[in-house]
Design brief:
elongated
Length: 291
């Protein structure tokens, strides 16, 4: 005979064996442990976040309080970034006056930067051809580069054409050269002075990017606002009922010396202009200068 005994599992388990019951109990215990650990960490991080936020708010309030009293910490002070500037203004003044059968061009010889005098004997006038000069105020380094470019192109012109360019052609060449550099321009303010095809004086004025005008007289540089009104009064005489402009070469030369003397009274970047003695000043000694 065979006997079969069927045993009922304990009431505390959800499976048919005690081994399965133990595993189930361990799973429930483990799940509850990880859940409690997660909740504890979440609560702790929440407290840390609240504490950190409260500390930041207190710090910000303290900064604003100190700033209102004028005691801004050095670490929070605005930072001044130095910007690169490729240009410098060496100043000085140049003047050109056109007349019948002559042209006068003059420039001081002082080279300055800020409140310092770098040179007292630097000419701002350069001959380009036998009949044409360029006079420039502004950045001296750009002036040197500009005159080298012009001389090279004039040499090429003479090689191709077989003669020197006229004053008008040279003036147009300078205009094209300046306009070609308009996106990174030469920091120069130029005058072209010379004799035209008829032998009369010709003066051309420019802005920094090559706009060109033919003028009876022109001024460029730091003393322009001081010199130009005097020339307007003496040469054009806009506000005079009866006016006779000076036409004599010696009179205009004396006028140029006088306007530079007047500008030097107020403009620290423009020096006195010395020339050979004129008939009016033959008894006075003046320092000769290439300017």
């Amino acid at each position: 005979f065979f006997f079969l005994m069927i045993r009922r599992p304990p009431r505390s388990t959800q499976s048919r064996s005690s081994a399965a019951s133990d595993v189930y109990k361990r799973q429930v215990s483990t799940q509850s442990t990880w859940g409690e650990f997660f909740l504890r960490n979440l609560n702790r991080k929440g407290r840390m976040f609240r504490d950190e936020r409260r500390d930041k708010e207190v710090a910000v309030e303290e900064v604003f309080k100190q700033a209102s009293l004028g005691n801004l910490p050095a670490t929070l002070a605005p930072v001044e970034h130095k910007q690169f500037n490729p240009y410098t203004f060496n100043a000085g003044s140049v003047v050109a006056i056109a007349g019948p059968k002559f042209c006068l061009v003059a420039g001081d010889t002082r080279l300055s930067e800020g409140y310092s005098i770098l040179s007292r004997n630097t000419s701002k006038l350069v001959p380009l051809t036998a009949d044409t000069y360029i006079a420039t105020s502004g950045m001296y380094a750009d002036f040197i580069g500009l005159q080298k470019v012009l001389k090279a192109r004039i040499t090429q012109y003479k090689f191709n054409i077989g003669r020197e360019p006229t004053t008008e052609s040279t003036a147009q060449l300078l205009s094209h050269t300046l306009y070609g550099k308009r996106f990174f321009p030469f920091y120069t303010f130029n005058l072209i002075a010379g004799l035209d095809e008829n032998g009369d004086g010709a003066v051309y004025g420019y802005d920094a990017i090559g706009t060109i005008n033919r003028l009876p007289y022109a001024v460029q540089g730091s003393g322009k606002s001081l010199i130009l009104p005097i020339l307007d009064n003496e040469i054009q005489g806009y506000n005079k009922v009866k006016h006779t402009p000076p036409q004599d070469l010696n009179q205009l030369q004396e006028l140029i010396v006088d306007v530079f003397t007047s500008a030097a009274e107020r403009d620290i970047y423009t020096c006195l202009l010395y020339t050979s003695p004129s008939p009016r000043d033959r008894q006075k000694s003046r320092m000769p200068s290439s300017a």
